[in-house]
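> forwarded from #structure-qc
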């Protein structure tokens, strides 16, 4: 109970709505409610108690608990993994908490355990609806290497801080098959905010805990980083990893506004086209005068006719080149291009010693362009 209270306090401190825990050592499975938090847990059977690490759990705060209960409190335990489905709007979320076996290191028995783990995990993922947002979180006991970003850049980000092991290769293969990305490695942070576990023997830090989502919902992940203070308070050797999620709603298609009638001014000034336009309007007026309609009906019909005929006779052709502004000379356009190039150079040298030089160059060109524009407009337009 004391450990549960500490965990809830840390979740409240870091404003966590949904948390996945690994290596809980809680036997059997079920749901426990403490204050406003609900914990769904799964572990080894109490009939076969063991000293081996096991068990996973998912904590839900008050808001997440209400959403989960409104969706039918659906959850399923598969060995040491839990699958929870939250029916949210506009998209449903499926959360799978996992605790992978340790890296085999050539052991035949361990290799079989890892293969069985990923086979069962694949069967679990296959049950998830394709329309759901899939969150796959937990301790995968896997290391990935930076070179894998060159071959699997859609799965692994560029900010890798470890070396590869057998579990890491399993992880990459699994993500590639299921269009899942490892979100931890897509965000650049200090090394201290990426490593999640320190080896008790050689005292080296590694990244073992990962947060993964569907590739199509990559834009919904705002940031992923860890907090060491939370792990110290709880008393675990794994650091606390927080993932920020924002669901981006697809904008509603806006109603298309009717386009304004574009007329060619040169055609309007043409005497022959004017005469043709006037003749057609006179014929229309004579025809409307003989019809039995109200004044408003005659007015509506005549205005529509004017628009149609005017658009036909004076229509502006699509390929008609626009006349350049007289005050916009070639010299000014060249200066504008130089200003644009200077702006790009300035931003390419941000945060370094040469930034001031390129910023001054851009500012000088910007002032020069504004001065040239003003002088040219005054000379041409008066």
């Amino acid at each position: 109970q004391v450990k549960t209270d500490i965990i809830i306090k840390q979740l409240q401190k870091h404003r966590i709505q949904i948390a996945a825990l690994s290596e809980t050592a809680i036997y059997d499975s079920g749901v426990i409610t403490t204050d406003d938090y609900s914990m769904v847990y799964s572990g080894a059977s109490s009939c076969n108690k063991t000293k081996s690490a096991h068990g996973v759990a998912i904590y839900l705060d008050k808001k997440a608990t209400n959403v989960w209960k409104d969706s039918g409190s659906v959850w399923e335990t598969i060995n040491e993994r839990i699958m929870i489905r939250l029916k949210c709007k506009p998209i449903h979320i499926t959360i799978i908490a996992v605790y992978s076996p340790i890296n085999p290191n050539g052991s035949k028995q361990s290799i079989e355990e890892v293969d069985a783990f990923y086979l069962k995990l694949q069967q679990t993922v296959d049950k998830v609806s394709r329309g759901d947002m899939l969150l796959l979180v937990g301790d995968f006991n896997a290391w990935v290497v930076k070179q894998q970003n060159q071959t699997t850049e859609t799965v692994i980000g560029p900010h890798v801080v470890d070396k590869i092991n057998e579990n890491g290769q399993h992880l990459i293969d699994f993500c590639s098959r299921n269009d899942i990305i490892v979100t931890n490695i897509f965000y650049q942070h200090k090394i201290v905010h990426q490593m999640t576990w320190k080896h008790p023997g050689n005292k080296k830090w590694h990244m073992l805990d990962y947060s993964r989502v569907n590739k199509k919902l990559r834009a919904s992940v705002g940031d992923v980083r860890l907090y060491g203070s939370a792990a110290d308070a709880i008393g675990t050797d794994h650091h606390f990893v927080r993932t920020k999620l924002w669901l981006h709603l697809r904008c509603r298609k806006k109603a298309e506004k009717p386009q304004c009638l574009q007329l060619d001014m040169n055609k309007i000034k043409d005497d022959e086209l004017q005469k043709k336009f006037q003749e057609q309007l006179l014929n229309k007026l004579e025809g409307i005068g003989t019809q039995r309609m109200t004044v408003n009906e005659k007015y509506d019909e005549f205005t529509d006719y004017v628009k149609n005929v005017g658009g036909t006779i004076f229509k502006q052709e699509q390929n008609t080149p626009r006349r350049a502004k007289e005050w916009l000379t070639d010299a000014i356009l060249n200066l504008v291009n130089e200003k644009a190039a200077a702006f790009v150079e300035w931003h390419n040298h941000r945060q370094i010693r040469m930034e001031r030089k390129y910023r001054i160059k851009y500012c000088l060109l910007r002032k020069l362009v504004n001065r040239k524009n003003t002088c040219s407009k005054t000379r041409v337009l008066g």
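QC bot note: The two ends are 84 Å apart (CA to CA). The first helix runs from residue 2 to 13.
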